[in-house]
Amino acid sequence: MDNKPFQADIDNVKLILQEYSKDLQDISKGNDDIIAALNVLTEKVSQYAEKQQQPNAVTVRTDTRPIEAIFQKGLDNLKLAVDGQPKSVVRKFQILLFPEQDAKLFYKIVFGRFFLLLTIMLALYYSYRFGVQYSHVQQQVRLQELRNDHIYKAWYYFYNKQNGKTRKLMDSAYARSIR
After folding, report:
1. CB of 12 within 8 A of CB of 89?
2. 149 found inside a domain
3. 87 and 136: one domain?
4. Which among 84, 86, 76, 87 has a CA at the least distance from the CA of 27?
């Protein structure tokens, strides 16, 4: 069973998965950067709040859950946009003398077919030549048989119409032609 068409599909799926993996890594890195920036900002806000604190200070709490929810919604939208975009798949046609992978199987298939086709072509060629030669020989045999038949008919006709002396002369000529 030939797995080359399935191999091409598997290679295409691997390419697409690698692209998605790279995109998800980029998104994850972006998330990490945003969280780090958010933590820095939270720390700065905390430091500022401490500076502004008075004796009967009001405690400032920073609730980042709404901001995180907004960021998460934006990331989800970004993921959907990336998933929705068509990916360009490049199909290439190659004639390989030296295959990229699995050379033994490649040459086994290619040269196996090549020698099979070469054998079939030679068999057809010599069969054709034999057929033409056989037909030519049979045509020559038929022509010779027609000539000989014509000569035999003339000989017997002439032989039957002659007298005894001419018949003896014809018999001796026939006997000499056989040797």
Report:
1. yes
2. yes
3. no
4. 76
Per-residue DSSP letters for 117-174?
Answer: HHHHHHHHHHHHHHHHHHHHHHHHHHHHHHHHHHHHHHHHHHHHHS-HHHHHHHHHHH
135 with 170, same domain: the answer is yes
Closest CA to 21 of 101, 100, 87, 90: 87
Answer for the pair 46, 62: CB distance below 8 angstroms, yes or no: yes
Using CA atoms, how far residue 48 sits from 10, 55, 59, in Å, is: 56, 15, 12
CA-to-CA separations, 143 to 117, 137, 139, in angstroms, rounded: 39, 10, 6
Tokens read off for 18:
């690698």
Domain count, the chain: 2
**pLDDT tens by residue, 3-55:** 666 787 888 888 888 988 898 899 999 999 999 989 998 998 888 877 776 55
**Domain span at residue 146?**
115-178
Q: CB–CB of 104/97 below 8 Å?
A: no
Neighbours of 178 (CB within 10 A): 5
